[in-house]
Amino acid sequence: MNLDIAGLRVLVTAGAGGIGLEIARAFVREKALMHVCDVDRDALAALAKTDPQMTSSYGDVADRDGIAKVFEEALAALGGLDALINNAGIAGPTGGVEEINPEDWDRCLDVCITGQFNCTRLAVPHLRQSKNASIVNLSSAAGRFGFPLRTPYAAAKWAVIGFTKSLSRELGEEGIRVNAILPGIVSGDRQRRVLQAKAQQRGVSYEEMESSALANASLKEYVTPQQLADQIVFLCSPRGRTISGQAIAIDGDLQMLA
């Protein structure tokens, strides 16, 4: 399928590894122009060797001055902007609400929701100049279910849905589409760390925690980063031109989070 996005100018946050890198590579395969930012300098250095067709910047989405510099570099490299993928996020702390360090709560929300605001406010003036403008915000299955022992993360990801819905209505008349992706249990190192932390908190084995998590989905298998990337690329293509304001779950039909 030709998605007709050759030359599309895309910025992906936290794009040097994990889900973000899969997203960036999926766009590049369709001949889009890609700029990524990340807080992992080692990953950025590796990216320059493995994916030299991408440009990149160091930047923390929670740092407003730093992310302003990222946008300066991205716009210089791309010559404009057609799509912003707000992928950056952190797992946040695991524990009962009375056990959570307030600084850890703040950091989780600073990255997972305020970071999206920081990027979007800088992107919108440039997206207005695009003929195929879109924003995709990464939420989570935790953005529609309660998530015991993960209240900071769940609170942030619920907020992403409200942010997305509001932006869709606010920006729709200007032709800017805004959607959210809600991944379920995604394979990779980050999910492994989350399950390990919850297993330790509950005093069960990793295998028991993993089985419990997957038991809540109709399709009892991990979501792959590539599945998320494919959906995001489609949404940013002209084929997704009337899709906006949606919270799209890619989660194997999860019914709850354990």
Would you give an account of this structure?
This protein has eight helices and seven strands; from the N terminus they run βαβαβαβαβαβαααβ. It has helices spanning 18-29, 41-50, 64-78, 102-127, 151-171, 189-202, 206-215, 225-236, and strands at 9-13, 33-38, 55-58, 83-86, 133-138, 176-183, 247-250. The protein has a seven-stranded parallel beta sheet, with helices on both faces. α4 packs parallel to α5. The radius of gyration is 18 Å and the shape is globular.
Q: Whole-Å distance between the termini?
A: 38 Å
Overall strand count: 7
Principal-axes shape call? globular
- Please indicate the percent range of residues in DSSP E strands (runs of 2 or more): 5-15%
- Strands ordered across the widest β-sheet: 3-2-1-4-5-6-7
The biggest beta sheet, please?
7 strands, parallel
The portion of residues assigned to helices is: 40-55%
**Global mean pLDDT:** 95
Order of helices and strands: EHEHEHEHEHEHHHE
Structural class: alpha/beta
Radius of gyration: 18 Å
- State the low-pLDDT regions, or none: none
Number of helices: 8
Which helices and strands appear, and what pairs or packs with what?
Layout: E1 9-13, H1 18-29, E2 33-38, H2 41-50, E3 55-58, H3 64-78, E4 83-86, H4 102-127, E5 133-138, H5 151-171, E6 176-183, H6 189-202, H7 206-215, H8 225-236, E7 247-250
Parallel strand pairs: 1-2, 1-4, 2-3, 4-5, 5-6, 6-7
